[in-house]
Design goal:
It is elongated, with a radius of gyration of 34 Å. The protein is an alpha/beta fold and 662 residues long. The chain is built from 29 helices and ten strands. It has a six-stranded parallel β-sheet, sandwiched between helices. A four-stranded antiparallel β-sheet has the order 7-10-8-9. The protein folds into four domains: 285 residues, Na+/H+ antiporter like fold (Up-down Bundle), CATH 1.20.1530.20; 110 residues, Rossmann fold, CATH 3.40.50.720; 55 residues; 73 residues, Alpha-Beta Plaits, CATH 3.30.70.1450.
Length: 662
Amino acid sequence: MAEAPLLRDLVVLFATAIPIVFIFHRLNVPSIVGFLIAGVLIGPNGLGLIKGADDVERLAELGVVLLLFVVGLELSLEQLTQLGRTVVTAAALQVLLTAALTTALMSAAGLPTAQAIFIGFVVVHSSTAVALKLLADRGEIDSAHGRLTAGIAVIQDLCVVPMMLLVPVLAHPSAASPLAITLTIAKAAVLVAVIIVAARMLLPRLLELIVRLRIRELLTGAVVLFCLGTAWLTAQFGLSLAFGALVAGLVISESEYSHQAVAEILPFRDTFNSIFFTSVGMLLHLDVVVQHAAALLGLTVAAILLKGVLIGTVIGALTGSARLAALVAAALCQIGELAFVLARLATSSPLLSSLHYDLFLAVSVVSMAATPFLLHAAPSIAHLLQRTRGQRPEPLRPKDELHGHVVIIGYGLNGRNLARVLRETGLRYRILELNPDVVAGARRDQEPIIFGDATRADLLHRVHIEHAHVVVVAISDAAATRRIVAVIRQLNPHATVIVRTRYVAEIDTLYRLGATEVIPEEFETSVEIFARVLRRLRIPRNVINVQIDLIRGERYGMLRGLTLPRQSMHDIQHLLAATLTETYLVDPSSVAAGRTIADLGLRRATGVTIIATVRGGTPVTNPGPEHRIEAGDTLVLLGNHNELDRAMARLEPKRAAGEDSP
């Protein structure tokens, strides 16, 4: 049988990578680091399980193409216009300052200018995959620091376009004249314009035709064809494959079929990306890492500090929040996957020597592995910074001191809806929000809002927290929510503190910290669903309300899978038994026909209450004692099982002597 070396290499690759990635996942270390470590172990410079990596590198090249294609798909131009001034400003400053400072430091270390600029390009990029995955796992994507992190990462990814265009120019400094740079950019612009125009004219019609055929394989094939075809076309004009794939993704992102395209391409992307990152690890020389361990450690710390301090300084200057600055800096201080793409472009050029490549790769791996721990430590670092320096307070417009008002912390969807209701009912309230763009918009709407970090006592004093009657905490940052509740309870022991949370694990902790009510989003959705189901099944509303009150009273213990105490289960059965309803259609021969409720004396005789009657489809609720019952009426009766049984027996028509029972 013919030997299949490529197949063998792929088997070794995945057989090694899967258990390593699993172990790293259990340790809360990003999977990208696991693939890189797997590549180090099995590569020619490690255990030598894969000696010739040429075939794998070709697959890795395809992985880069698919990686950049999906990045382009996710870089919706429409979404970029909605990022907000703060995000765009922060991202632009971060990219420019990081590139400039890194270039200056590398030049001072004696590197040629072109090489120093390239290293600046590499250091700029953070790992979008690592940062957003960690924030998603923590449930903080929708938080203020989550939105800032995502926006900055998106703009970083977009900056890879001009950087890829400039890599060939930097690789040949003799040709790096202003004219050469201008021609390169002009050629790319013309090519991109041609691709976009052609795609906008043909692609929507083609995709619509394929979608109408309802053949899934055709859509997948068309998407892959457009991705690879555009990459190949740009390569024919002297540009990189990755650049063409990115352009293809950007074009399709504006199509109405972009979400389906992402769904179809993701399995390919994930598979080939694992090959890409593993192949990158294969190129790392372990002996170089061991020989330069001290330099590696120093460079890693320097890279994390450089990016962390710059990002933190920019965010702190724009928002005035040390907490926000620390969290965003911790999420973005590593060197990410698009830096690998740039490094791969430069491996065959003088821009990146073998030693520099090995050190860069090792620094990237260690910085990504450190990110989860840095993000975990960020709130403590922020608290330390807040103690060492004051935060810029921002006063409200002069008003009399408030008493008995509502404080809303977080002006997202829930905060806006609550503020609208309070405003319409004439109740006084104050809002505290950490997103400067949101604050600016709310001020234009004349909302009583101030910008600030609610974890700080001095900012809470600005909204008169000590005199508030109710405080509502509606933010997506679990760690900040815990601290806010603790600080509020110190400043105002008597306020009603209502907290929204997304996590079951936070419920008991928040109650211990002093929350009056904790509203978990998922469980409240479950409560609403089962309440509506029971209403559709004609279960009496009072029974449904008893169930809801019991679930909330037990702090959602039933939904959390906790065993309720025996006494609680007894109470449930007792309450259900005591609050049943029944209906009875009045027969012409019934003792109730033609009599008033007082004459019938049903409550006096059986304990059952007639809470409503229905005649001709028209209900009469809470009928008085003088209300006359007629044949054909439907009575709605309230009582327990025994009482209802006695009432039914009393209402049944009297049978003639000798008549058989039914």
